[in-house]
Amino acid sequence: MKTIIVQHELPDWADWYVDKLSDAFPEHLFRAAHTMEDAMALARDANAFVGIGPKMTSELVAAMPGLEWVQSLSTGVDNLLAMQALPVTVPISRCSGVHGPQMAELALTFMLALARRLPEALQAQTTGAWHREPQPLLLGKTVCLVGLGSIAETLALYCSTLGMRVIGVSGRGNAPHVDRIYPRAQLEQAAAEADFLVVLVPLSAETRHIIGRSVLDAMKPSAFLINIARGGCVDEAALLDALHRGSIAGAGIDVFEQEPLPADNPLRTAPNAILTPHIGGFADTYHEQCFPTVLTNMRTYLENGPDALTGAVRRCDAD
After folding, report:
1. Structural domains of the chain, ranges and CATH numbers in brackets
2. Catalytic site residue from 8, 31, 94, 230
3. Annotation says 278 is catalytic
4. Catalytic site residue 244?
5. Known active-site residue 315
6. Contact, 170 vs 199, CB < 8 A?
């Protein structure tokens, strides 16, 4: 019998996973942990951990001497791949390919709110002001997607349905609903065409600050930057300068180089910026979206062992 900890900051979700997995695998023990403190109390007997990988600490991993597998309920597991406390033999599975709808909807929310100056409308609502002007349409605008993975495929579909021209920056030769693809070496040229520049690339040594001063300077003064990828993909100092200079029209930012974002971070008061607290992938049905992946991987692990998990990564893979 294996003992599996299921931890989530939303207690109902942890309990939901435990109920579903216990029904599917009644011969094994699934324990819900509503906090990391709960997880620490259960850690000694754990063989596997299901939870948000980026929230796992070295202390928690070190407290699980029998750990054989981690199933992260997220795509990013950079912290685990760099965690010395995690044995190199422990595979890490991720939940990928499920974030398209919520990430695309957040990108569209930013586009509409920024173009139609929603923050100003909300302020006018409280002050009693009444100011009417023609409203910009997304129809006919150009959106440039920097990175063409599964999230970009969903967003490209949504944007094309709205009558937008979709271009991309990627090493791929083609992608559904994308009118033109530029190689990464021509990022500035692609940025110059965009009314909305949407960052979707994963964070790596190659993509850190991929959106820097030169790219921001290449954008039209009427264009908006949207970052729903990783904070490190955008040079925040250069972005802050561009917003204050008015060299771009505004920005929608969901991810930051330091999270939680400090209360005194100057981006919070930057002109024409809308900030959200890294909620892009956090849908109200996310636990249901991830469950098929968790169920498939759990069956593989329990029936064939951790080495049989396909698509899993290990800490040594990142070395």
Report:
1. 3-97+284-318 (3.40.50.720), 100-275 (3.40.50.720)
2. 230
3. yes
4. no
5. no
6. no
